[in-house]
């Protein structure tokens, strides 16, 4: 009787395409669920420690969080974007794009809390380990250091490799030396790249300020012109004390004092 009932049920299922499709779909979803839950996907390079494995569910969740983070970034919702990026990285630690976007989000936000600065440093260091310290990520880390006035960290990380780096990173190092009062390394970086630095008026102004603080002023007229440019340029607000000191020094030597 049981065999007859089973055969009848099987015939009914086979004769009902919709019911058969539902059963197959449920079975497929069950198989997919079993495959997606175990953390079997290695997402870090062989030499990276600790080795990190994730599940397919982690990948899907990270993608959804990344979409939410990008939307929050576009709407200017920093806290939402930051939380989404951090969670996306937690679900998929090996995704370099998520780490870069998290770091970029932190760079765009002024006056970070110390805990977020620590988060940015950890993210940048992990990123460099994962991507074998490529140039674009070094530049991203340098921007983070400059934005948050991490002068000692920038010099520690980049100074010995400065000749490998592009002009923007070397410029960031020059500023870090100035801000940290490191006259010797400032002069060394400037001497190595002075020709290229001359194309950036901000870096030239840093050199003028450095010359005022730690060396002779060679050309009063040139310095006066640069100071006039700096006074009208908000990007050089950090140098306001040095600009004032330079104007006083130039005036005492007989130069024309710029108008404020």
- Give helix and strand order, one letter per element, not per position: HHEEHHHHHHHHHHH
User: Whole-number average pLDDT?
Assistant: 76
**Category by helix and strand content:** mainly alpha
Number of DSSP helical runs: 13
Question: What share of residues is helical?
Answer: over 70%
Rg over alpha carbons = 29 Å
Major sheet size, sense and barrel closure: 2 strands, antiparallel
Strand content bin: under 5%
The first-to-last residue Cα distance is: 103 Å
Inertia-based shape: elongated
Number of strands: 2
Strand order of the largest sheet: 1-2
Structure write-up:
The protein is an all-alpha fold and 260 residues long. It has a domain of 61 residues. It is built from 13 helices and two strands. A two-stranded antiparallel sheet has the order 1-2. The longest helix has 20 residues. It is elongated. The relative contact order is 0.05. The C terminus is likely disordered.
């Amino acid at each position: 009787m049981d065999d007859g009932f089973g055969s009848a049920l099987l015939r009914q299922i086979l004769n009902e395409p919709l019911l058969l499709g539902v059963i197959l779909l449920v079975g497929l979803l069950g198989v997919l669920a079993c495959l997606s839950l175990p953390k079997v996907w290695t997402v870090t390079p062989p030499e990276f420690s600790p080795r990190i494995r994730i599940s397919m569910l982690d990948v899907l969740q990270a993608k959804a969080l990344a979409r939410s983070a990008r939307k929050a970034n576009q709407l200017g919702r920093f806290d939402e974007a930051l939380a989404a990026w951090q969670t996306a990285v937690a679900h998929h630690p090996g995704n370099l794009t998520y780490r870069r976007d998290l770091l970029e989000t932190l760079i765009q936000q002024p006056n970070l809390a110390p805990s977020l600065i620590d988060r940015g440093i950890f993210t940048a260091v992990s990123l460099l380990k994962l991507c074998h310290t490529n140039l674009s990520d070094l530049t991203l880390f340098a921007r983070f250091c400059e934005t948050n006035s991490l002068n000692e960290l920038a010099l520690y990380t980049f100074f010995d490799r400065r000749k490998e780096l592009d002009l923007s990173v070397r410029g960031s190092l020059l500023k870090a030396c100035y801000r940290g009062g490191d006259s010797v390394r400032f002069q060394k970086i400037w001497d190595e790249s002075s020709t290229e630095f001359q194309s950036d008026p901000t870096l030239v102004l840093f050199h003028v300020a450095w010359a005022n603080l730690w060396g002779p002023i060679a050309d009063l007229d040139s310095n006066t012109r640069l100071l006039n440019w700096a006074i009208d340029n908000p990007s050089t607000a950090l140098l306001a004390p040095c600009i004032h000191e330079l104007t006083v020094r130039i005036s005492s030597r007989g130069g024309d004092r710029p108008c404020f």
